[in-house]
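Sequence in, structure out. Go.
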Amino acid sequence: MNLHTKPGFSHRTKLESVREPTDEEFELFRKLVLTKLGLNWGSEKKYLLYSRLQKRLQHLKLSTFQNYFNYIHKEKNGSELQHLYNAVTTTKSGFYREKQHFEFLRREILPELKERMLRNRLKLRFWSAGCASGEEAFNLAMEAHDFLGTGLISNGGLRILASDVNTEVLDSALKGNYTAEQINNVPDEMKKRFFVSGANQQNDEQTIRTDIRKCIEFRHFNLMASEYPIATKFQLIFCRNLLYYLHPEIRELLLKKLVDHLDEKGWLVLGVTESGYNVEGLQKHSFSTYRKI
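Output:
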């Protein structure tokens, strides 16, 4: 018998005794995610905290969220804090999500950028901020390749930065593997051109073509950082459905940072529900799309 387990109770039963966070414990984590991630949590997020982290507490053999909070702060390398980030951040993504943005990209943005590339030998730099599992970044790459052609894209003509604070989804994005269901919204012609059969044939898994993947750099960093590890300006930044979750004051600061990283006349695309912002230095266009002035 395990000497650390009470008679009549299995090891597994013991690990399931994690109680829901008290109001005081929830407040500790509410302030933590506000400071570290900018998330604006209301009281309704208490259950989210419990449901997404209960198994982690079981794994660590911690019975209360106060214990878990203490554990995070005692750890020096920050790995448990990253576990928290991975658990509480929203990672919903998809190919051609909010399709109107890609229609606007093809109709308004790419034609102008192509002209500038031909006239001024412009090298394009795009940023998918909060890229989740990579669909958005790959979507941008596919649309650019299709519209601009390989000649303009090759030899550094296009580079896309894809960043996220969540390491789990970044690991998935790096592989570039997607199920048939995940690429359901990709037009058949684009599937044929930009995907190849993946290793997992049982679920019709498809993998992004190598030349598309090569133009994208997936990088882990937090948009709440005081300075970003970026030394370039972007002609296009997609930062969709991320600001919605942030505290209003933090949202304003983040928007200013994004504007600072836009090239002259660069475009900023936000989520369709994020259309009510008036940002200094940006002119609003349709579909929550803004341009630097």
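Check: Residues 1-15 have pLDDT under 50 and may be disordered. The chain has two domains: 11-88, 99-292.
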